[in-house]
C-alpha cells in the first residue's frame, strides 16, 4: 500500500483538495499527520508530484482481521455469546453460545438480544417448553435450550431465517433429527416459519415460557395470542421495545391479564417481563 504522509489536518481544504486531485483513494488524519492512500498499482516512477511530505510503502491492512480483533465475548447471565474463534475466552462455568457476528437476523451484540438471554438465564427452564416468537438467527431458542429447556421452538415469519437458525444450532452442537434438532443433553429444538395469530391451544400444548424480541406495536397486537399460547403462571419476556413505547406494552399486558409486570432499560431499549395470569 502506498501512503503519502505530511504534517497537517483534514481541516486544511487546500491540502486535502491537492491530495484528492493527485488521485488519493482515501485520506486519514493521525497524530498531526495527514495520510493519503494510493492504489498499489501506481508505478513508483510515476508518482504524483506532491511537496512537503514523504512517500511510504506500508503492508496491506487486513480490515477484516482488525474488525475481528475488536470483538469481545458477550456475557448475558449464565450464557456467553461468542464468535467461533473466541470460544476459548468463555469463562469456566458459563454456557457457550456460538453465533458469528455480522451475520443477519440477530446476534448477542444487540442490547435487546443480550437482555432477553439474561432474562431467560434467570429462569429455571428445565422441564419447560419455551416458545421464541421472531426467532431470527435462533439465538434465543438456542439459549433457552442450552439453559435446559425440555423443548424450544423458534417461529419466524421470514422463511430465510429458518435455515440460518438450523445452521446456528448445529454450530452449537445440536444434531438434526427427523423432527428437528437435539442438544447433546437430549433437549429438543425446532424452528418453523410462522407466527402467533388467532391460534388456540389445548392445555397440554401450551408453553412454560415465551420470549419475543419484536417491537412494541407488535407486542400490543400479539398480547392476547401470547396469553393463549402460555400456561397459567408461565413467564413472558418481551423486548425490542423503545423506551418511549413502553406504555403501549404495559397497557396491553394489563388488558390481557398478565401480572407482575417489570421493566428494564439498556440505553433506549427496554425489556418487559410478566407472568401469565390465571385462566
Ligand atoms: C429483532 S429480530 C430478533 C431476532 C432474535 N430473536 C434476537 O433476539 O436477536 C425480529 C425477528 O422477528 C421476525 N418477525 C417480525 N414480525 C414477526 C411476526 N409477526 N411473527 C413472527 N416473527 C416476526 C423478523 O423476521 C425477525 O427475524
What attributes does this structure have?
25% helix, Rossmann fold, Alpha-Beta Plaits, binds S-adenosylmethionine, four-stranded antiparallel β-sheet, alpha/beta, 2 domains, elongated, nine-stranded mixed β-sheet, 16 strands, 279 residues, 7 helices
Structural account:
The protein has 279 residues and is α/β, with parallel strands linked by helices. The chain has helices spanning 13-21, 63-69, 111-121, 139-146, 161-171, 216-229, 246-256; strands at 2-7, 26-30, 33-38, 54-57, 74-76, 79-82, 95-98, 129-133, 151-156, 175-177, 180-182, 188-193, 209-213, 235-242, 258-266, 269-276. It has 2 domains: 2-61, Sun protein, domain 3 (Alpha-Beta Plaits, 2-Layer Sandwich), CATH 3.30.70.1170; 67-276, 3-Layer(aba) Sandwich (Rossmann fold). It contains 7 helices and 16 strands. The strands form 3 sheets. The protein has a 9-stranded mixed beta sheet with strand order 10-11-12-9-8-13-14-16-15, with helices on both faces. A 4-stranded antiparallel beta sheet has the order 2-3-1-4, covered by helices on one side. Helix 3 (111-121) packs parallel to helix 4 (139-146) and helix 6 (216-229) packs parallel to helix 7 (246-256). S-adenosylmethionine is lined by residues 105-106, 113, 116, 133-137, 139-140, 155-158, 161, 195, 213-214, 218, 240.
Amino acid at each position: 500500500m502506498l501512503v503519502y504522509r505530511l504534517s497537517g489536518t483534514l481541516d486544511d481544504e487546500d491540502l486535502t483538495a491537492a491530495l484528492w486531485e493527485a488521485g488519493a483513494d482515501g485520506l486519514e488524519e493521525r497524530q498531526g499527520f495527514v495520510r493519503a492512500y494510493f492504489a498499489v498499482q501506481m508505478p513508483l516512477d510515476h508518482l504524483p508530484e506532491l511537496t512537503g511530505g514523504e512517500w511510504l510503502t506500508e503492508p496491506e491492512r487486513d480490515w477484516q482481521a482488525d474488525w475481528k480483533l475488536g470483538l469481545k465475548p458477550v456475557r448475558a447471565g449464565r450464557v456467553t455469546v461468542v464468535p467461533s474463534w473466541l470460544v476459548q475466552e468463555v469463562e469456566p462455568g458459563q454456557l457457550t453460545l456460538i453465533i458469528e457476528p455480522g451475520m443477519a437476523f440477530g446476534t448477542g451484540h444487540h442490547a435487546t438480544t443480550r437482555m432477553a438471554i439474561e432474562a431467560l438465564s434467570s429462569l429455571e427452564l428445565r422441564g419447560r417448553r419455551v416458545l421464541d416468537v421472531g426467532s431470527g438467527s435462533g439465538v434465543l431458542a438456542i439459549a433457552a435450550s442450552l439453559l435446559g429447556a425440555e423443548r424450544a421452538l423458534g417461529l419466524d415469519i421470514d422463511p430465510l431465517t429458518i435455515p440460518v437458525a438450523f445452521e446456528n444450532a448445529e454450530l452449537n452442537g445440536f444434531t438434526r433429527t427427523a423432527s428437528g434438532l437435539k442438544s447433546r443433553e437430549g433437549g429438543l429444538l425446532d424452528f418453523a416459519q410462522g407466527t402467533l395469530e388467532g391460534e388456540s391451544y389445548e392445555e397440554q400444548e401450551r408453553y412454560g415460557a415465551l420470549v419475543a424480541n419484536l417491537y412494541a406495536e407488535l407486542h400490543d397486537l400479539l398480547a392476547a395470542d401470547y396469553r393463549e399460547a402460555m400456561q397459567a403462571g408461565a413467564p413472558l419476556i418481551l423486548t425490542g421495545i423503545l423506551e418511549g413505547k413502553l406504555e403501549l406494552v404495559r397497557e396491553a399486558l394489563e388488558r390481557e391479564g398478565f401480572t407482575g409486570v417489570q421493566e428494564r432499560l439498556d440505553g433506549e431499549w427496554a425489556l418487559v417481563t410478566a407472568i401469565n395470569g390465571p385462566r
